[in-house]
């Protein structure tokens, strides 16, 4: 029999999808929130656990990712559960749907529940853009982007907000998806988007290469020989799409969190870790260390650099906390009684 020690009701803040959209988070707000989490991580002011996976049924084309973390400067802990079901387009749903739960780290009291589907896309784009900001040439003018899923839009949007590309190339497996993606980008950016028919014409000679493909099994379709010297390559597909030799040409290899490198069977550089090509010895830094000024990013135009991000709970929590603060100021969301 439990003993009640406090009769005061406990409420939590709920932000649904419409609330998150109504916040109209700006590019600068998104990047600033994610950078705040990265700086805290770089300074050792966070706790982050490796992601966990749940596969409901082998016959279902997808799985759940469970991400957990704590950011001391923000005074908030969080757990995000995100589904990754790559055939959801067949039933008119996004491939990734998520919930973020925020907690008081001192008491464990739930603080908020947030529709994190947009957060997942936004923070992924922010991490991609921040990584390129520190590891790509400052005068990068050609972007080659593989993939047209939800995170892809924010990759391109936030990258372009930093680099103002002269040429943006996109490719994805299905013509209808890449054409629709390009049309959305052209509408929102007022720029001509180059839709390519294959991987090579998208990637070869690009200053920044982002690989966000949706392969059903690992396949080395992105060839190392297509990467020009001085480029920045950012692969983060769930299934590896790069050759083992990709890491051989890199001057610097950076991750969002080394603890995530061996978390689960998935990841763009899974085979590179397993074979020892990417290790604690060959890893230059975690991105948070660079953002916090503890380790250098790009140091010359000649460097060819790689940034692998697996997705950090810290980014979800930092952006979720920023959204919650803005929502309270704007009077958005619902108060739900917890107990």
Verbal overview:
This protein has helices at residues 17-23, 27-42, 117-135, 150-163, 175-189, 199-203, 270-274, 287-291, 313-330, and strands at residues 11-15, 46-54, 62-71, 76-85, 96-103, 110-115, 142-146, 167-171, 193-195, 208-211, 232-235, 252-255, 285-286, 305-308, 334-337. The radius of gyration is 20 Å and the shape is globular. The chain folds into 2 domains: 11-119 and 314-337, ornithine cyclodeaminase, domain 1 (2-Layer Sandwich); 137-311, 3-Layer(aba) Sandwich (Rossmann fold). The protein is built from 9 helices and 15 strands. The two termini are 17 Å apart. The protein is an alpha/beta fold and 339 residues long. Strands 9-8-7-10-11-14-12-13 form an 8-stranded parallel β-sheet. The model has no long low-confidence stretch (mean pLDDT 92).
Summary, kept brief:
It is built from nine helices and 15 strands.
**How many β-strand stretches?**
15
The residue fraction in helices comes out at 25-40%
Q: Major sheet, described briefly? A: 8 strands, parallel
* Shape type: globular
Q: Which regions are unreliable across 5 or more consecutive residues at pLDDT < 50?
A: none
Strand order of the largest sheet: 9-8-7-10-11-14-12-13
Any idea of the CATH topology of the largest domain? Answer: Rossmann fold
Using the coordinates above, name the CATH class of the largest domain.
Answer: Alpha Beta
Structural class: alpha/beta
The CATH superfamily title of the largest domain: NAD(P)-binding Rossmann-like Domain
Q: Compute the CA-based radius of gyration.
A: 20 Å
What is the residue-mean pLDDT, rounded to a whole number? Answer: 92
State the order of secondary-structure elements, H for helix, E for strand: EHHEEEEEHEHEHEHEEEHEHEHE
Span between termini: 17 Å
Number of domains: 2
